[in-house]
Amino acid sequence: MTIEQIRTQIAERQTTATRLAEQSLAAISAEDGELNCFLTQSRERALEQAAKVDAIADRGDPLPPLAGVPMGIKDVLSTRGVRTTCGSRILANYVPAYDATTVVRLESAGAVIVGKTNCDEFAMGSSTENSGFGPTRNPRNRSRVPGGSSGGSAAAVAAGLCTAALGTDTGGSIRQPAAFCGIVGLLPTYGRVSRYGLAAFASSLDHVGPLTLSSRDAAHVLQALAGADPLDATCSLQPVPDYVAELDRPIRGLRIGVADFGTGLQPGVAAAVERALERLRGAGCLISRVSLPLNDAGIAVYYVLATAEASSNLARYDGGRYGVRTEAATLPEMIRQTRDAGFGAEVKRRILLGTYVLSAGYYDAYYRKAQQVRALLSRGFAAAFNDVDVILTPTTPTTAFALGQESANPVERYLADVFTVPADLAGIPALSVPCGQSEGLPVGVQFIGPPFEEARLLRLGHHFERLNAE
Ligand code: GLN
Question: Which of 74, 126, 201 has the most ligand 1 atoms within 8 A of CB, as the residue to mutate?
Fold first, then answer.
């Protein structure tokens, strides 16, 4: 059911929020064993919240926009009283004392949080195989990864275990799993959605956003999430438009820029994206070429800056205040052993890389240089948006990787983020929408827009879904 259908059915008493929550929790219990989308179910909290929604319906009062919508929350977002692991063994026992702002907003809008979803440890990865709690499988093909790092969220929505989910995107972690699982994922503008209560990976790049079955559902979730937050100084004061009302405005005449996709695209992905372009052209969009360096420079910049920031942000996990501690004779030894036992290989690799690029002799060569190239990339986008309204790319160069093939060379995996990292680096919004299949696996097309133009992207996504259905 769509978010609007759920609301209507509850309002018309065809179902109740409690029944929907029970159904979602039962589906997770019955079907999630092998998929492993959820790390924790929040049954008590879900039923309490569902009862509140049902009480509103009982009184005949107007229902809030997300009334009774069962949702999964990526386990990097803080939930009061509900275990929050960040996919890491180091937080295997951590139960936060407070809620992330996004969680508060969803519940104020009537959503019912059914559990916390699996992810790569501290959101570092592209397959959910870096989770400390086992990988998630792709419900479209269980021998494949769901993508990552928000793989549990994407797979849960694709499998119908919940209606929508929250993910986070630092270098592609909402859009790439959305593409791999055949659903919709939105990266909002930097500062559009509060990050209070998000465990920081790379603070200048981290974003929270929705994973849903349709652009219309994404518009509803974004509507609930977006807006200023006094608890997050990086959150923008920019007014929030009516995303849902904008969806039905026409797309005829919309100028879509297509950049050079470079080499290394899976042929089936290239073909699916070509078909997408043809459909958009047929619907009256004006397609042109834009020159935008969507090349490995973005990847290099991203993996310098993200690791630098991660090495600093992850210093707080020391066994001293919360999480799992490995006891030892001295304090430094306790911290060393806690971090050694608690962090997985990829997280350690990132901390080492980040420490290296920030170290005295290399700061100018790596960190400062990366900041400069980041600024150039942003300017490149700004210039391109003088000529076009939206930039179109594939979301990923290939379809979902086979499970268990985490390559011996991590750089290969990093390179697959080529189309997703630029929008994070520029802080601009991007939407991934399903656009057919390649060799039986879902393909995603990405629409990138200027700052705070989420409404334009969602509108294009909404029309594109209808063109696809024709
Ligand atoms: N795949 C990227 C990485 O491993 C993106 C992660 C993310 O967006 N959280 O860093």
Answer: 126
434 CA → ligand 1 middle, Å: 20
- Count CA within 13 A, CB hemisphere, residue 464: 30
Among protein residues, the one with the nearest Cα to ligand 1's atom 4 is 125
Phi then psi for residue 211, to 5 deg, are: -120, 125
Residue 432, φ and ψ in degrees, nearest 5: -105, 130
What are the C-alpha distances in Å from 119 to residues 76, 100, 228, 416, 449?
Answer: 8, 17, 27, 18, 27
Structure confidence at residue 18 (pLDDT): 98
Its domain, for residue 47, covers 3-246
* pLDDT of amino acid 408: 63
Q: Could you tell me the pTM of the whole model? A: 0.97
User: Does residue 127 lie within any of the structural domains?
Assistant: yes
Q: Are 147 and 158 in contact (CB under 8 A)?
A: no
Q: pLDDT tens digit string along 226-243?
A: 999 999 999 999 999 999
Query: Ligand 1, closest atom to CA 424?
Result: 8
Which regions of the chain are under pLDDT 70? Answer: 293-294, 406-408
Domain count, the chain: 1
Query: How many whole angstroms separate alpha carbon 73 and alpha carbon 114?
Result: 8
| 255-258 and 184-187 beta bridge pairing | unpaired
Answer yes or no: is the C-beta of 206 below 6 A from any ligand 1 atom.
no
Which CATH number is 62's domain given? 3.90.1300.10
74 an active-site residue?
Answer: yes
Q: Round to whole Å and give the CA distance between 32 and 110.
A: 25
Q: Is residue 328 included in any domain, yes or no?
A: no
Catalytic-residue membership of 204? no
d(Cα 139, Cα 204) in Å, to the nearest integer? Answer: 32
Q: Which two tokens stand for residue 8?
A: 């209507």
Whether 173 is catalytic is yes
> Distance between terminal CA atoms of the chain?
20
Q: How far apart are the CA of 90 and the centre of ligand 1, in A?
A: 19
Q: Whole-angstrom Cα distance, residue 128 to residue 37?
A: 10
Q: 402 by DSSP, 3-state: which?
A: strand
Evaluate whether residue 229 is within a structural domain: yes
Q: Is the CB of 125 under 6 A from ligand 1?
A: yes
Count Cβ atoms within 10 A of the Cβ of residue 54 and give its class: 0-12 exposed, 13-18 middle, 19 or more buried. buried
Provide the pLDDT for residue 412.
82
| Residue 415 burial (CB count, 10 A) | 15
